[in-house]
Amino acid sequence: MEQAQAVFAQDRALMEAAVSAANRQVDELKIENEGLRREAESREAIESLAAERLEHARLQAELRQEFRYTSDRQTAIIEEVRLDLAQSAVVTRELENHLGAARALSESLSREIDKLTSEANQLKVDLATAHTGIETSNREVREVTHALHIAEIEATRLRTALHAKEEALQVEIARRIAADNAVAELRTQLKTPARMDRNG
Questions:
Q1: What is the pLDDT of residues 10-58, one digit of tens each?
Q2: Domain for residue 139, yes or no?
Q3: Which helix (H) or strand (E) holds 87?
Q4: pTM (2 decimals)?
Q5: Is residue 13 classed exposed, middle or buried when 0-12, 13-18 and 19+ CB atoms within 10 A define those classes?
Q6: CA geometry: angle at 66 spanning 60 and 70, to 5°?
Q7: In a domain, 47, yes or no
Q8: What is the predicted pLDDT for the residue at 193?
Q9: What is the CA 129 to chain-centroid distance, rounded?
Q10: Low-confidence residues of the chain, pLDDT below 50?
Q11: Which of 20, 90, 121, 148 could pair with 29 as two cysteines, CB 3.0-4.6 Å apart?
């Protein structure tokens, strides 16, 4: 019985260590899963922000394009008026000044549109990168969740095995006690007649 108890104690210590390790792994996977979930939420927020910036840039580009068209139309009208009033030097100089200012504004708007177009392209790239990052995070979350499930199953299995060993030991101890009692009773019975013969 002492040897069996020693073996069971050793097995129990090993099983408890395995259960403890499995529980630690479960806790670590839960922490990692929570971090990945927060990272995925952060990336989704970045993606939403990038989409809003892209739409804002697109609207600004459209407005500047419309203003540029209006400015070009005004430039054309000014040019027509300048030709019609070519005989008036003063008016011609004023119109030329307006035309120069309109051209400078048109060039400035053109540069601004090019800049906004470049920003829009960069935002598209950032948006694609955010999509990729979210997909990667979601895949990692699924993998960690799967590993967490496996670890929980293993911990349950180890706890069940430990419980089964404990029950088996209890049965063995009860069997040994019953056998010892039977032996003791038999020895008592065997000794009793001898005593009676000596007394007689």
A1: 777 777 777 778 788 888 888 888 888 888 788 777 777 777 777 777 8
A2: yes
A3: none
A4: 0.38
A5: exposed
A6: 140
A7: yes
A8: 57
A9: 16
A10: 195-198, 200
A11: 148
